[in-house]
Amino acid sequence: MLLSPQALPQVSTPPKTTVLYASQTGNGKKVAEQLFARLQAQGSEAVLFNLKDYRPQQLKQEERLITVISTHGNGEPPDDARVFFTFLQGVRVPRLEKLEYAVLALGDSSYEAFCQTGAVLDQRLAELGAKRLLARVDCDVDFASTAAEWQQHVAAKTPAANADHTIQLHLNPLISELAQATEYSAADPFQFELLSSIALTDNGSDKDVLHLELSLEGSGIQYQPGDILAVTVANPPELVAELLALSGVSGGTPVSLKGETCDLYTALRHKLEISGLTRRQLKAYAQQIGHPELLAAADDKSALQDWLYAADWADLLGEFPGKLDAQTLVGLLRPLQPRQYSIASSPAAHPDEVHLLVKRVEYGFHGRLHLGAASNWLARLQTGETAAVHLKSNPHFKLPSDPQAKIIMIGAGTGVAPFRSFLFEREVLGIRGNSWLFFGEQHFRSDFLYQAEWQQFLKTGVLERMDVAFSRDQAEKIYVQHRLLGAASEVYQWLRDGAHIYVCGDMRRMAKDVHQALVQIVAEQGGKTPQAAVEWLEQLIAERRYQRDVY
Amino acid sequence: MELIATPKPLNALAANGSAVEHIKDRSNYLRGNLVEDFHNPITAAISEDNVQLVKFHGSYMQDDRDVRLHRQDKKLEPAYSFMIRLRVAGGDLSADQWVKLDDISNRYGNGTSRITTRQALQFHGIIKFDLKNTIKAMDAALLDSIAGCGDVNRNVMCTPDPTLSNLHAQVFPWAQKISEHLLPRSRAYHEIWLDEAEGKTLVAGGEAEEIEPLYGKHYLPRKFKIAIAISPFNDMDIYANDIGLIAVEENSKLLGFNVAVGGGLGFTFGREDTYARLASEIGFCTPEQVLDVCFHTVAIQRDYGNRADRKLSRFKYTIDRQGLDWFKQELNARLGFDLGEVRPFVFDTTGDRFGWRSTTDGLWHLGLRLEYGRVLDNETHRLKSALRSIAEQNLCGFRMTGNQNLILTGVREEHIDAVESILQAHGYAADASHLSGLRRNSIACVALNTCPQAMAEAERYLPDLITKLEVSLDKHGLRNEEIKIRMTGCPNGCGRSVLGEIGLIGKSPGRYNLYLGASFNGDRLNALCRENLDEAGLLKVLDELFAAFTAKRIEGEPLGEFVTRCRYVRHPATKGK
To answer: Is B96 inside a domain boundary?
Structure first.
C-alpha cells in the first residue's frame, strides 16, 4: 500500500518538506511513513515519495529534503534508489545551494559497508552545496528507537502550518489507518506452533536443510508470496556457556540492558548477539582491553577478513583474552535480532500455515564447533513447541500483477524458498506455464530440495521449464549462472517477451555471478556493449522486472 | 487339443499384443527417446516405455527400496539407479578386463559387483547420468551389455571349469559363437551409448529383415536362455533353460550336443496357469548344426510365442500349448534335416568344485566360493581388493560360474603361492572346506533392496538363516552333508529356487514358502511343502526334517531323494520330460 502524493490534500504554505525513502525490506518505508504522519499531524506541509517514483530533476526546486535510505549487499543502494543515485553521481546534477536536508541511514553493522548508501548520499548532497538540517544518523538492525528519536528531531526542525490543515489531515483515512495499524513486530511477536520439521537433505549431503511448517492460526497474519518471516531466536546454550567461562564472569551477575536489569546468562542467551562479530566491535573490544595489535588489525580492512567471517565472541575472548566486567561486555554486544527467512509457502495453497526453508549452519573453526544461532535454534524446536515470529513484507520481491507475464526464477540452495511460494500460489490461481526455474545445489541425489514438488509442477504445467545445476556431481563446478548462459538465447527471448526475473540466495557469490551472466546474455544476445547491457538491466531493476532477495 | 496357432508375420504388431509389444513396435529398433530421457536433469528415472527398452541394452531401472518412504518424507523422488548386466558368454574375463570392471564398480556403481546365476557380471547403483560413461568404460574393456536383459537371447552359459573334462576346451568356444549368432543387429546400443553415427538402420521404411533378420521389429515375446553343460556336471542347470545343450564326446573329441528345450523356472503366485518347467530332451545335433538349431528354435518362439500375456509368453508355454511333437516337426522342417537320437549321458551334480586343481597343460585353477556372487570388501574380508590385486599382477583369468562363484584360471605353478598369499592377506579363504555343506551349496538372488520384483529378502538374509540352520545340522551330524538350498525373493526364478533340495521363495517380508525334493543333479523340480513360514517356523520344520533324514536315510541318499521317497511332498505330474 503506497501513499500516493496525489491522494493528499493540496496545500501551498512554503517551505515544503519532501520525504523520500528507499529500502529493500520495507523498513525505510515504514520509518518514512511514520515521519510523514508526524509531519502531517503537526500541520507541516510535506509530501512522501518512494525514490523510485521521484523525478531527480526536481531536486533543484526542493527546499527541504528528508531521506530514509538503506544499504544492501556490499554497500549498494536499494533497487528503487538506483536511478536517483545514477543521477546524483552524474555530470548533469545541478547545484543544490538552497537545499536543507537530513539523512537517516539504515544498515546492518555486521556488514563492512555499514550504512554506506546513506553516507554517500549525505556526502554528495553536501558536495553539491546543500546544508545539513541535522547530522546524518546511522541505524543498525535495531533501528526503532534511534529512528523514533530522529523523527522527533526532524519534526522539531520542520515548521508547522496553521490548524486548518491539521484538521483536514486528520480526516485522511490512510493516515489514520497507518497510525492505528497493529502489526506483530519484534517487540510484539506472534507465538507460532511448530507443526512439523523435516530434513530435506538426504544421506551423502554435506548440509542439513530443514523444511519447517508453522501454524499461523489465529494470528491474522496476512502475507504474500515473496514475504519474509522474522523469527525471534536464542543463542546456543553451548556458546553461552563457553563465553561465560572465557569471560570469567558469573552468569548470575546482574546487568543493565536498555534500562532493564537481567542476569548475564539471560542477556547472553536471549538478548544479545554473540555468534557473530563486526569490525566495529573488534575495534571497541581492542580499545577496551588495551590491545594495540588487535586495534591495528581492526582498523586495517584487509586484515582478519576470513577470521571475522567465521569467528564468534568466544573466539575473540579466547584468542585475545582481556579483563572485562559483565556490564562492559554487554555494552559491546549488539541486540540479538530476529532472523529473517523467505517464506516458502503460499497463503492461497497453505492457509494458516507458513513454511520455512532453513539451512542449519554448523562449521568447525579454530578447533570448536560453531553453530548458527537461529538455524540451530529452529532445528532444535520440537513439534508442538511455540516460538515468536512477525511478518516482514518484502515489496521488492513480488509476482507480477499481470498473470500472463512470464517469470524467470533463479535460486540456489535455500534461495529457492520464495519460488516454492510463487509456484504454489500460481497453481491455486490457475496460472499455467510462463514460468522457468533455475535451481542450484551441490548434489542431485541428496540436495535436490523439493524435488518431488517441482516434478509435480512440471507435470501439471504450473512450471514450464526447470534447469538445475549440481555443483559437485562432476569434476568441474557447475552453478546456476552456467545454466543461464547455456540457455542464453531463450533467456534473452523471455526477457524480451517481458519476463520478470527473480534472484534469491547468497549475495556474496551467487547473486553477483548471476548478474554478470545476465549482463553477458543481454550483451551477446542483444548485440549490446557491456555498458549498454548493464544499463538495460538497470532499467529492468527500475521497472521492478528484475527483483532480488539476497542475503 | 488346441488348434495350432498361425505364426506372427515378422514385422506385424501382434493383434492382441501386450503394452510391451506396443512399446517395442514404436521404439524404432530399441531407440525410443532414450537419449533425451537420459538427459532429463530433473529426475533420475526414465519413462515407462524407456524402462522396457533399456532392458535390451542390458540395464534395469531400480530404486533403493530401503529408503523409499524416507525419501518420500523428504520430498525427494525414490533413489533411482540402474543395474547394468554385462554379456559375458561362458563367464570368461581376462585379468585386464577384471581390473577395468573393478574400476567401473568403484567409479560409477555402488562399490560392489555381482556375479549372477547366469555367469554374467552386474553392477548396481549406477545413477542415470553415469550410465553412458559406464557403458563407454565397458566398451573400453571390450565388453558390452547388449541383450543383457530384455526379450532376446540372454547371456549364453557354458560350464567354465577347465578341469572338468578334456572336452572343455572344445566345448567352451560355442558359448561365444551362439551368443554372437543370436545377438540383435540394431545399432541402437552403439548410437545411444557409444556415439556411433546414425546408420542406414534409421532410414525411414527400412527393411526390418535387414535390420533384425532374426528378431524383427518386435523381438521375442519374452527372454530366452541357453546353456551348455558337460556330463556328468550339470553346474549350468541346463534344464532351467529354453535350450539346454549337453556336450557329447567320443574318444575325447566333441561329437555334438544333446538338445533339450522348453525349460523355464519362473511362475506367478496366484496364477495357476503359470508353472516351472524343466527342458525336454528332443534330440542330438553336431557342432556344425548347433547354431542353426538355436537360431530356428528362437525363430519358432518368435513366431508362435504368446505376445498377449507376458505371464504366459516364455517358450515353455509355447511348447506345451503347441505340443513337443509339433515343435520337433517344425524345427526339423526349418532346419531341413532331422535331429539325431539323444545320446546317453548322466548328470551327478549341479554344484561347483572349490580349491586348486590342475589341467594336463600344467596350469592350475582355483575354485573360489563367493557369497551369492557379491564381490566386495566388508568387515570380515576384502575379497574385492584381493581379486583386484591378483588381476593387476596378471596371475590368472577369471571365470564366473553359474552358481555365483568364481574360478581363477590358468595359474602357473610358481604363482600359486602369490595367489594364496594375496587371498590370505585380505582375509579370504582359498577353499570352502571350512563351510558347511549347506552353505557351500546355497544360492540366493539379489532381492531387496534393489530388485523391484522382490517380496522378501534373499541375498541379505540367507547367510544368517544358514547360520541358524547350522545349529540343527550340527545337532544331527549333517554339517558336511551336501545339501542344495536356494532362496529367492519372488517366484521369478533367478536363484533357481525350484531346483533346490530346499527351496525358499519369498511371499512377503519375513515369510517364505518352503519347497522340498528337487534332485541333486538338477533333473527334478521340488514341490511345495509349507506356505508363509516365518523364521521360527522354517527353523522348526527344517530341524524336524534334518532329524528324520539322519534317522531314516538310506546310505548316501541325498536330501532331495529322501524327501521324495518318504513323500514329504507330492510332486506334480511332470510336464514335458
So the answer is: no
CB B402 within 8 A of CB B237: yes
Best residue of A455, A456, A478, A482 to probe chain B, by most B CBs closer than 10 Å: A455
Residue B68 near chain A (CB below 8 Å)? no
Measure in Å the smallest separation between the Cα of A340 and chain B Cα atoms. Answer: 23
Spatial separation of the C-alpha atoms in residues A231 and A337, rounded to whole Å: 9
pLDDT in tens, B137-172: 999 999 999 999 999 999 999 999 998 767 999 999
CB contact (8 A) between residue A445 and residue B41 = no
Over range A174-190, report the average pLDDT.
Answer: 54
Q: Is B451 part of the annotated catalytic residue set?
A: yes
- Mind listing the pLDDT tens digit for each residue in A414-447? 999 999 999 999 999 999 999 999 999 999 999 9
Active site includes B253?
no
- Structure letter (DSSP) for residue A320: S
Average pLDDT across chain B, whole number: 94
Which residues of B fall within a CB distance of 8 Å from A201? 74
Contact B75 A467 (CB under 8 A): no
Distance from CA of A488 to the nearest CA of B (A): 18
Q: Answer whether residue B213 is part of any domain.
A: no
pLDDT of A55: 80
Q: In this structure, is residue B420 part of a structural domain? A: no
CB B418 within 8 A of CB B472: no
pLDDT at A221: 87
For chain A, domains (ranges, CATH) are: 17-171 (3.40.50.360), 190-231+338-392 (2.40.30.10), 237-332 (1.20.990.10), 407-550 (3.40.50.80)
Residue A7: what pLDDT?
A: 39
What is the predicted ipTM?
0.87
Instruction: Give, as one character, the DSSP assignment of residue B404.
Output: S
Q: What pLDDT is attached to residue B321?
A: 95
Chain B within 8 Å of A200 (Cβ-Cβ)? yes
Q: Which of B285, B396, B445, B529 is catalytic?
A: B445
Side by side, which strands form the sheet with B355-358? B92-93, B397-400, B406-411, B364-368, B355-358
Distance CA B136, CA A507 (A): 40
Mark whether B149 is an active-site residue. no
Nearest to B104 by CA among B78, B135, B79: B135
C-alpha cell at A366: 579454530
Please check whether residue A211 touches B, CB under 8 A: yes
**Catalytic annotation present for B285:** no
Share the mean pLDDT of chain A: 88
Facing residue for A451 by CB, picked from B70, B77, B129: B77
Do the domain assignments include residue B551?
yes
C-alpha cell at B382: 576384502
Non-local CB neighbours of B106 within 8 Å, separated by 6+ positions: none
Nearest 10 degrees: Cα torsion B303, B309, B311, B316: -30
Neighbours of B342 (CB within 10 A): 15
Strand-pair partners of A137: A104
Q: Which residues of B touch A483 (CB under 8 A)?
A: none
CATH number at residue B472: 3.30.413.10
What domain count does chain B have? 1
Residue B399 · residue B92 · CB < 8 Å: yes
Q: Do A452 and B42 lie within an 8 Å CB cutoff?
A: no
Probe site for chain A from B42, B81, B82 (most A CB atoms < 10 A):
B42
Active site residue B529: no
For residue A9, what pLDDT is reported? 39
How many H helices and E strands in chain B? 19, 20
The verdict on whether B294 is a catalytic residue reads no
Pick from A96, A86, A84: nearest CA to A60: A96
B184-231 pLDDT, tens per residue?
999 999 999 999 987 644 444 555 557 899 999 999 999 999 999 999
Give residues with Cβ within 8 angstroms of A55, minimum separation 6: none
